[in-house]
Amino acid sequence: MISVKNLHKSFHTLKGRADILKGIDVDISDGEKVVIIGPSGSGKSTFLRCLNLLEKPTEGQIIFDGEDITSSNVNIDKVRSKMGMVFQHFNLFPNMTVRENITLAPVLLKLKSQDEANEEAMALLDRVGLKEKADAYPSSLSGGQAQRIAIVRSLAMHPSMMLFDEPTSALDPEMVGEVLSVMRELADEGMTMAVVTHEMRFARDVASRVLFLDQGRIVEENTPDELFDNPQNERTKLFLSKVL
Amino acid sequence: MSLSEHLFQDFIAEKRYMYLVDGLKNTVIITAGALILGIILGVIAAIIRVQHQNKKNSSEKTGPVLFILNVIVNFYLTVIRGTPTIVQLMILTFAIWKSGQPIQVAIVAFGINSGAYVAEIIRSGIQSVDIGQTEAGRSLGLSERMTLQKIVLPQAFKNVAPAIFNEFISLVKETSVAGYVGIQDLTKGGDIIRSQTYDAFPPLLAVALIYLVIVIGLTQVLNILERRMARSDIR
How far from B142 is each of A75, A81, A104, B10, B133, CA to CA, in Å? Predict the structure, then answer.
């Protein structure tokens, strides 16, 4: 499904060049749920954001559905419409109702008529238990509700893969569960997922594979049981000893 | 002469009130035209500047077209904001576009002038919208243009509506210098009455009142607009 080869990303900062990703190789196949963990500043989010080119890789290739999306003649909008993304801060459009948030992209991109999109929005909202919020504005939602709606907004595009960038990090603790349970459901339905998170329970329960990133490299990758119970790398051990 | 005789002489006799009516008409036409032109120019200039800045920040290479457009925009903003409106109007009327119909020339001159100020307001508006909004739009597969049009600009306009209306209000009053290039606007109309009746206060006071009413009207429009845009703020 998606194949990352020798991915590098550097930023130019005031202090000079910062190399955030230093050669990432990873394949994610259909239906896999890959959870990316690692200390702050390890490049987890940058890696995820490179997958849909919100960050432009400095070097390397990303093959998505057989197409190298880093090449300049690729229609990146089309690629992104197949890759849903959920952000830490939800990024709902504050000037639109929940329904408008969900239907904007499918209608603008002419995938659906407004009526069809509305209908699907209601069905999706029903699934996450937020049907009554269709006409509400994002400012009236709790963090947990907003994030569930952000997930629904992505799903309305029928992506073949979903990227989650710390989807629960900005939530009050009591709202983490409701978002994770939507993600679990999605995983059970066979969605291909790449998730950056600090929720180790979720990683253990849902992930088919866990990547441990440190200083821009994948230091260790394994099934969750192996990685959490029997970490091989010293840095993995140190990190897990602090977070578990 | 009693006050009523003064007023009669100033406004009723020889239909002198028509100077104010016709003048108001011209003021409104010039203002409205310049407003529209100013918004169009301002939005375009703002988008060019923001795009150029974004590309520069993301250390992507800026294309030559964007680079040149940005140079033009910067030149435009510097020259227009650095010289008096009245000078710009006179240069356009007497030097550049001599064959132009005076009202049209004035619309263009005030529009170009207003656009420079609107550009900076809109630019700050665009930059006040969280980058996450753009990222959310793009990640849904919307093009750069759609994201800007449907997601960023509406929020930008909302954030800068008061500043934009401030500019509109300035524009209304700034058109009062149109008399310099022979246009009979509202101010000139009042001045003509003064020169005919040798009575300064009533006609000029009337002119001032009319401007005041226009500005109060514009402020009301802003209030209504802000209330409508605040719908999404209610918690």
Answer: 11, 8, 9, 61, 12
Contact residues, chain B, for A108 at CB < 8 Å: 142, 146, 150
Number of folded domains in chain B?
A: 1
Residue B156: CATH number of its domain? 1.10.3720.10
- Side chain identity at residue A44, one-letter code: K
Q: Give the pTM.
A: 0.90
Average pLDDT score over chain B: 94
Write out the residue range of the structural domain in which residue B204 sits.
3-234
Q: What is the pLDDT of residues A172-208, one digit of tens each?
A: 999 999 999 999 999 999 999 999 999 999 999 999 9
Q: Which of residues 31-60 of B touch A (CB under 8 A)?
A: 58-60
Contact B14, B155 (CB under 8 A): no
Task: Return the closest-CA partner of residue A128 out of A175, A75, A77.
Answer: A175
pLDDT in tens, B155-175: 999 999 999 999 999 999 999
* Helices of type H across chain A: 44-51, 76-81, 98-108, 114-127, 143-155, 173-188, 200-206, 224-229, 234-243
Cβ pair B141:A140 closer than 8 A: no
Contact B146, A105 (CB under 8 A): no
Q: Superfamily for A1-239?
A: P-loop containing nucleotide triphosphate hydrolases (3.40.50.300)
Contacts of A138 in chain B (CB under 8 A): 232
Q: Say if residue A15's pLDDT is above 90.
A: no
Tokens of A188: 């059970």
